[in-house]
Design goal:
This is Cellulose synthase-like protein B2 isoform X1. The chain is of the alpha/beta class. The protein has 26 helices and 13 strands. The protein has an eight-stranded mixed β-sheet, with helices on both faces. Helix 4 links the parallel strand 3 and strand 4. Bound molecules: uridine-5'-diphosphate-glucose and manganese (II) ion (MN). The site of uridine-5'-diphosphate-glucose (UPG) has 24 residues, from strand 3, helix 8, helix 16 and helix 17.
Length: about 750
């Protein structure tokens, strides 16, 4: 463990960035918003209902801006010094790595294989790592692919360590051609490894096409007659690192698990899978730290575990009680600038308060915290306080909390007391692991309630995060350059919109359960600004005012109403617009993104707000009224345009992703609001230009319409394009019908 001598240089430092420019800009925009609201109040009686609606919308935007200003006020992040860890820490702690996957079609096994290979090859003592893959799809193909991957790992892991490879996911590593001259030892190894990787890809591909290959193999018997939602628990130790001493040629433990599923049983999606992972790993390796990555995310930095350990092992000089270390979620598709910029500012802001929220992937958790421990249960030296020992370790409370498996309870006691786990044979725990995978194992226990990943929201990350921070723990944000983890983002716009819908629906679910920052306002140890940050999940309510605001200029043109202030006061709106544009542009450019990507992101936010978030509100309303349940639809993962089916992508070309500005449409309902908005605004502009409303100049409102059309430009283009870049006829008809109704309604009154 760490030597706590204060004379040694620190393992990590928290760096605060106070940008007075940013604060000034935030406050100026806030001031402008408030003066606009004041102007509206003062002139309320002279105007009609449009004025009131605009006032309500702008009040909502102001509240959101106030919240984000609070969150972004004092950004921070943690810088780590992994080079110092070896001289400070003689016995690095173990880490259990969890990779959940759920569907071999939406999550092609070759993607999972690459994620796993990058994690197995991490630069950390091999005998201190164990990798667990949970398969909610109960797929023999996934199991087969992982088995093959473990064979290739015996070549890949030593290769990476021998040549100190940085990017340890083969599909990314082999994108670059061989740099050295042929004939050297390195080039021979490189070519051999590449050949083996391509063989692996081919095997996976052939197995994907043929469904009978597994019939003859006994090892696959467990998969016969199973359905993804109807099967018994499967636990397979794919590779056990027997007697490992941490040698560079070793490969870490590697285990495949799939929990029991039966129809009519709630299985709690990813959170349920994570809790099963926690239990099985508790029985087998019981590492004090757990790394969670999604199955499409690979380690892009070989030192990532050491970096995280720098934060945890800072030791007694770290009074902050860090419960988890979160890395940013970035993607290699380079099509997600919008989300990256948003995350970069918001999560850094949070890191300056109580700590970043847990983002669901790329996060190191402490097992004891996941078992429900609070900071006051722990003494300065890390051991349990005597009160906590009495309460938590009481013989009858443990099975009530953690379930009836004796082995499980024993492992929990060891974990809580941070007793080092004597190495034992993994296969001896298979029976116990199967027991804790039963559908009803969690029945009447605290799993998902106060222990492990929490249930009752599709964004289990947010839910779990609020609970951890509410107990008084902090967290750290480590954002190295190059990024430590890279994942994929949905390639299709409708997939991206679906993902947004799920995130916001999940966030709203959090508001209505027991972790709700609203309900727990006075009760718990969440810091004030952190609570405000969690309230930001209300952000999807913004979709209604956004929708209204996109329609108001058109309505006013058609109805001869006034939307914007007149004379000098129009200056408020113009300055607001100008400042907001410059400010968001600065955010983009300061992170190295182009003006083009800023433009696209402005569109994208409007489209997300008026479609995904709107549907989130439907979802949550239906759930609250008990009409329907929310469903976790897994995001489709792709490795688009692979070379010869080898999982290798050619050089980064023009992507068609949501951020490229090139929109692909399909018949999905997500494209309806955008099409409707564009049609309505075009109609209003047409009416305006033929001079219908000569009596009322309405120039400002017409400019408003033009701005809306520009923001929804992909839809305007979609009206004229053909094929996948054109809006489908059915969507167009529905939108046109709604637009006609809107125009008639506006003209009629
Ligand atoms: O029943 C399920 C559903 C999902 N998953 C896994 O959960 C992960 C995340 O699912 P994905 O469809 O990729 O969701 P994303 O929207 O991309 O994920 C983000 O948002 C989720 C919450 O909505 C978080 O759980 C994720 O960690 C976070 O990366 C994947 O590895 C899935 O295989 C399961 O294991 N079981
Ligand atoms: Mn994902």
């Amino acid at each position: 463990m760490a030597e706590s001598s204060s004379s040694l240089p620190p393992l990590c430092e928290k760096i605060s960035y106070k940008s007075y420019f940013q604060r000034a800009a935030d406050l100026t925009i806030l001031g402008l918003l408030f003066s606009l609201l004041l102007h509206r109040i003062l002139h309320m009686t002279q105007n009609d209902n449009v004025w009131l609606v605009a006032f309500l919308c702008e009040s909502c935007f102001s509240i959101v801006w106030l919240l984000t200003t609070c969150i972004k006020w004092s950004p921070a992040e943690t810088k780590t010094y992994p080079d110092r860890i070896d001289e400070r820490v003689h016995d690095l702690p173990s880490v259990d790595i969890f990779v959940p996957t759920a569907d071999p079609v939406r999550e092609p096994p070759i993607i999972v294989v690459n994620a796993v290979l990058s994690l197995l090859a991490i630069n950390y003592p091999t005998n201190k790592l164990a990798c667990y893959v949970s398969d909610d799809g109960c797929s023999p193909l996934t199991y087969f692919s992982l088995k093959e991957a473990s064979k290739f790992a015996k070549i890949w892991v030593p290769f990476c360590k021998k040549y100190n490879v940085r990017v340890r996911a083969p599909f990314r590593y082999f994108l670059n051609p061989l740099a050295t001259t042929k004939g050297s030892e390195f080039s021979r190894d490189w070519q051999m490894t590449k050949r083996e990787y391509e063989k692996l890809c081919r095997k996976v591909e052939i197995a994907t096409g043929d469904s009978h290959w597994s019939d003859a193999d006994d090892d696959f018997e467990a998969f016969s007659n199973t359905k993804p939602n109807d099967h018994s628990t499967i636990v397979k130790v794919i590779w056990e690192n027997k007697g490992g001493v941490g040698d560079v040629t070793e490969v870490p433990h590697f285990v495949y698990i799939s929990r029991e599923k039966r129809p009519n049983y709630l299985h709690h999606y990813k959170a349920g899978a994570m809790n099963f992972l926690v239990r099985v790993s508790g029985l087998m390796t019981n590492a004090p730290y757990m790394l969670n990555v999604d199955c499409d995310v690979y380690a892009n930095e070989a030192d990532v575990v050491r970096q995280a350990m720098c934060v945890f092992l800072q030791g007694s000089s770290n009074p902050n009680h860090c419960a988890f270390v979160q890395y940013p979620q970035e993607s290699y598709d380079s099509t997600t600038d919008t989300l990256t910029v948003f995350q970069s500012f918001m999560v850094r802001g949070l890191a300056g308060i109580q700590g970043p929220i847990y983002l669901g992937s790329g996060c190191f958790h402490t097992r004891r915290v996941m078992y429900g421990l609070s900071p006051e249960d722990v003494e300065a030296n890390g051991s349990l306080s005597s009160l906590a020992t009495r309460e938590l370790l009481a013989a009858d409370s443990l099975p009530r909390g953690f379930g009836n498996s004796k082995e499980m309870v024993k492992s929990v006691v060891e974990a809580l007391q941070i007793k080092s786990n004597p190495q034992h044979i993994l296969t001896n725990s298979i029976e116990a692991a199967q027991e804790v995978g039963h559908c009803d194992y969690e029945y009447q226990t605290n799993w998902g309630k106060t222990i492990g990943w929490l249930y009752d929201s599709m964004t289990e990350d947010l839910n779990t995060s609020i609970d951890i921070h509410s107990r008084g723990w902090t967290s750290s944000y480590v954002s190295p350059n190059p990024p430590a983890f890279l994942g994929s983002m949905p390639a299709e716009v409708s997939e991206a919109l679906l993902q947004q819908r799920r995130w916001l629906t999940g966030s709203m679910e959090v508001l209505f359960n027991k972790q709700s920052p609203l309900l727990g306002m006075f009760r718990r140890k969440l810091r004030f600004r952190q609570r405000l940050a969690y309230l930001c999940v209300l952000v999807c309510l913004r979709s209604i005012p956004e929708l209204f605001y996109c329609l108001l200029p058109a309505y006013c043109l058609l109805h001869n109403s006034v939307l914007f202030p007149k004379g000098a006061c129009l200056g408020i709106i113009i300055t607001l617009l100008g400042m907001h544009s410059l400010y968001t542009l600065w955010e983009f450019m300061s992170l190295g993104y182009s003006i083009q990507s800023w433009l696209v992101s402005q569109s994208l936010w409007r489209i997300i707000a008026t479609s995904s978030w709107l549907f989130s509100i439907f979802d949550i309303t239906l759930k609250l009224f008990g009409i329907s349940k929310t469903v976790f639809i897994i995001t489709k993962k792709t490795m688009s345009e692979t070379i010869e089916g080898s999982g290798l992508r050619p050089s980064q070309g023009e992507d068609d992703g949501p951020n490229s500005g090139k929109f692909e449409f399909d018949g999905s309902v997500y494209f309806l609001p955008g099409t409707f908005i564009v049609l309505v605004n075009l109609a209003a502009l047409a009416v305006f230009s033929v001079g219908y409303s000569l009596g009322n100049p309405g120039l400002a409102e017409a400019c408003g319409c033009i701005l809306v059309v520009i923001l929804f430009f992909p839809f305007l283009k979609g009206l004229f394009e053909k094929g996948k870049y054109g809006i489908p006829l059915s969507t167009l008809c529905k939108a046109a019908f709604l637009a006609v109704l809107f125009v008639v309604f506006s003209l009629g009154k």
